[in-house]
Specification:
Blueprint (H helix, E strand, L loop, with lengths): L1 H12 L3 H17 L3 H17 L3 H17 L3 H18 L2 H17 L3 H18 L2 H17 L3 H17 L3 H15 L1
Amino acid sequence: LSASLAALRIAESEDLTAQASAACHTAGLVHRNLGQNQEALSFFRRAAELARAANEPTRVVKSRNEEGNVLHALGDEVAAKARKQEALALARAIGDEDGESDCLNDLAEISFRQSDWGQARLYFEAAYEITSRLGDPRERVIAAANLATAWASAGDRPRARALLVQALELARSNDLPAEEEQARGALAYTLS
């Protein structure tokens, strides 16, 4: 945290708006990981404002999406969903597929927790399609595990298991033990 704050002070003193935005975003992540949600929220909001001023829309997407994560942690699901939908719209407008996939996954998780299986499935399917197209094995395994869990919750366990078998193979072939564990957990859920 101290390094992020030092970077922020330097960036502000040199009028480096993009760098100040990056430092604020990093400070927000640190505060969020420490459970200091109000501080995290302030830093993510500031990061988004600075990114907008620096004409860095990808950073705006990331910061707005993180604001949504913090708002969700604070129990404000309505505001969290609204912030994530705002980030999703911007990601789509600028062609930021990584940001779009992140927003879709997060919106799906909120919908899933609200027992809105149909909406969760739609968001997870869209995120999986994007991650498959982008080709990052780690993100594909995570998206597959999420989608399979949604399918299993909707009663389509055979389809979920088939996707998870593919995800496990992908995780193993790319030496992704944490993601392999996540896929195993999802597989256990589909078998329960």
